[in-house]
Amino acid sequence: MVGRAPQDWSQLYRILLRLLCLLPTGLPVRSVDFSRSTDNITVRQGDTAILRCYVEDKSTKVAWLNRSGIIFAGQDKWSTDPRVVLEKRNELEYSLRIQKVDVFDEGPYTCSVQTQQHPRTLQVHLIVQVPPKISNISSDITVNEGSNLTLVCKANGRPEPLITWRHLSPSDGDFNWEEEYLDITGITREQSGKYECKAANEVSSADVKQVRVTVNYPPTITNAKNNEAATGKPATLRCEASAMPLPDFEWYRDDSRINNAQGMEIKSIGSRSTLMVANVTEEHYGNYTCVATNKLGITNTSIYLFKHDLPTIPNPVSEGDPTDHFNHKGPGTATGENGSPCPALSLWLMTASLLWLLCKC
Ligand SMILES: *[C@@H]1O[C@H](CO)[C@@H](O)[C@H](O)[C@H]1NC(C)=O
Ligand SMILES: *[C@@H]1O[C@H](CO)[C@@H](O)[C@H](O)[C@H]1NC(C)=O
Ligand SMILES: *[C@@H]1O[C@H](CO)[C@@H](O)[C@H](O)[C@H]1NC(C)=O
Ligand SMILES: *[C@@H]1O[C@H](CO)[C@@H](O)[C@H](O)[C@H]1NC(C)=O
Ligand SMILES: *[C@@H]1O[C@H](CO)[C@@H](O)[C@H](O)[C@H]1NC(C)=O
Ligand SMILES: *[C@@H]1O[C@H](CO)[C@@H](O)[C@H](O)[C@H]1NC(C)=O
Ligand SMILES: *[C@@H]1O[C@H](CO)[C@@H](O)[C@H](O)[C@H]1NC(C)=O
């Protein structure tokens, strides 16, 4: 465009000469210096452009031209475009006002001023700017882990907007991709989340849109622990699995599936499942299996419910003895640490006996 400018001007000028016959006969066309640098006028799409032009003498013949022809010749409007008017704030002004400028208005404009002695042209290059606007972006998508994915973001604007992709969640700070197309080969579950496309040019603030990428993967058990419970007490077994889509859970006791009816309740919310036993009896102790399933796979783990003897009251004296935890008796017994009668009780018995003996006397 810029490189072709001198040619444009000469074309315009010839059109002018042909149509207006303003040039005094004999004055050669090449006498106008077409290589002179032109002024740029930058206007945003939708705004009004005013291309200024002044004459020295109000009797001078003047005209405005654009690439396709004459817009105004003197006071006569040749253009049929209602957005175009002359702006004459005084006798010597001959400016062109273009309302609601659009991209097709961009290009060279010439104000041609004809005097007997020397023709003069004012050349203006109208540049129309358009704010960046994302015109097409991939919709939210779900893919399986390991597959290849291409996200696309197309934007319009003048100058051509710079397009940048960014992974938003989980935040992936340094990831920035300057391309309309974002290719992800062998996508991982960590690459799921929101992707942001930003289209920016210097005209106005950037246009930003997001795409949500969901990566499906088969379940893996992330948390499952054995537990212990006393008879007559409630017990809970927990199982947690990572999966997308979220897993379905099933519980098995040895080989048989557990359902809610057997005094047990299964509650599964999101990636967690719990098996609750309201009132533990001897038959409840044993091996359970938590099975997590989604459409991409199945996995299981075994969780053991151990018997726990009642009750566990920490005994400071026996803290160092690991066997004590399981063997020690409840507080109702009068048996001491090593099985011998409690010293306090012995003392009391001895005193009582003594008193009894004394009374007898
Ligand atoms: C007009 O804009 C073009 C780029 O569009 C630039 O190369 C040229 O230098 C500008 N001319 C002036 C006079 O600013
Ligand atoms: C300039 O010319 C183009 C065609 O090249 C035309 O569509 C446009 O309306 C013209 N602009 C004005 C302001 O007349
Ligand atoms: C957006 O791009 C896709 C693929 O390039 C195409 O199939 C779709 O028709 C486009 N949508 C619009 C609104 O341009
Ligand atoms: C993903 O792209 C890689 C490299 O371009 C290619 O080797 C592989 O076969 C593609 N995988 C799928 C599932 O299309
Ligand atoms: C638990 O079950 C036993 C035996 O069936 C029963 O005696 C006891 O009352 C139950 N306890 C509770 C809290 O339901
Ligand atoms: C529980 O059962 C599974 C198989 O169902 C077995 O692999 C595992 O060893 C058992 N655990 C115990 C503690 O018996
Ligand atoms: C648990 O998985 C093993 C092998 O992965 C399988 O043999 C077994 O049948 C599964 N158990 C259940 C209860 O699904």
From TrEMBL:
SUPFAM superfamilies: Immunoglobulin. The lineage of its organism: Eukaryota, Metazoa, Chordata, Craniata, Vertebrata. It is found in: Cell membrane. It comes from the Eukaryota. Residues 24-123, 132-214, 218-306 form the Ig-like domain. It is a lipid-anchor; GPI-anchor. This is Limbic system-associated membrane protein isoform X1. One of its GO terms (biological process) is cell adhesion. Residues 1-31 form the signal peptide. Belongs to the immunoglobulin superfamily. IgLON family. The gene is LSAMP. Its main location: membrane. Keywords: Cell adhesion, Cell membrane, Disulfide bond, Glycoprotein, GPI-anchor, Immunoglobulin domain, Lipoprotein, Membrane, Repeat, Signal. InterPro entries: Ig-like_dom, Ig-like_dom_sf, Ig-like_fold, Ig_I-set, Ig_sub, Ig_sub2, IgLON_domain. GO terms for cellular component: plasma membrane; side of membrane.
